[in-house]
Amino acid sequence: MESVGLKIFEAIADMHAVDTHEHTYPYEVLTGKGLSIIDILEGSYVFWVTDPPEDRSDYKSLVEHLKRISGSAFYKACSIAVKELYGVDIDPPTVEALEEASRRVREAYRDPRWIREVFKERSLIDTALLDPYWDVWGGSFDPDLFKPVFRINMFLFGYSREARDHNGNTPYLLEKQLNLEVHSFDEYLELVDKALRETKRRGYVALKSALAYDRPIRFEEVEEDEARRVFEKKGIGVTSRDIRVFGDFMLHYILGKAEDMGFPVQFHTGLALIEGSNP
User: Fold this and answer.
1) What is the distance between the terminal CA atoms of the chain, rounded to a whole angstrom?
2) Has residue 279 got a pLDDT over 90?
3) Which residues pair with 18 in a beta bridge?
4) What are the backbone dihedrals phi and psi of residue 264, each rounded to the nearest 5 degrees, phi first?
5) pTM check: above 0.85
6) What local confidence, expressed as pLDDT, does residue 138 receive?
């Protein structure tokens, strides 16, 4: 007789899922960079807890770095996935295993269908929400697998043309695309409105905040006049309070527009700054 634990495991293993958080680069971007196990480790955030080797081909240094954190959840999860997907055991890390893993990763990605196979067939993910923070409009992706969400962080940084969110994005890059020049606060709000309408037109299914990587995620109610005052400084003499006030107003403004347009909004906290967490 099968144990209850085994039955539960098998039932879970057969479940299909909707993946609510992905940053999968387009196939041509991935294959154009000379993929190796380094990219898999980086995409699994392993290099948040240890340093990558200065030379991507220096597997000896990579092994030494990985040994320091081989007991971490980052590395354990990644090594399990590498073993299941590529048939190579990199735990504990060795030069030979990592070199072989790199070879198999490159071999797998020669097939343009590999990404789809990993999601649909291996992971039983029917749909994944794609957050393409590197490209406002997402670039190329498999529309049957991925449903894009629109990152809103940059709109809280419109108080200055020099300001950027943590991914280096600025809303003013949209001026040319949306055929709109911004000189006043009213025109800035029009830029935001137009961007959200374009997002809807392009088939994005939700808006997404990753603002926990930029600032605290407590957003106070702020009068429009206060945000306008900050905007009219044009980035000159802007204080930390000004930046927060402007961002607070813009977040509430965007949420109001999202409600009007029927956009769900995702709030991603991640590891982030964790300010205000308890404990």
Assistant:
1) 44
2) no
3) 127
4) -65, 155
5) yes
6) 72
CB 181 within 8 A of CB 59: no
Taking a C-beta distance cutoff of 8 angstroms, is the pair 49, 115 a contact?
A: no
Element (H, E) at 59: helix 59-68
Mean pLDDT of 85-111: 98
Phi, psi of 240, rounded to the nearest 5 degrees: -65, -35
Tokens of 175: 């001026």
Tokens matching residue 234: 């044009």
12 CB-contact burial (10 Å; exposed 0-12 / middle 13-18 / buried 19+) = exposed
What are the structural domain ranges in the chain?
Answer: 36-108, 152-267
Residue given tokens 């190796």 in the structure block: 36
Residue 249: closest CA among 189, 162, 200:
189
Place of tokens 């990579």: 62
Rg (CA), the chain: 22
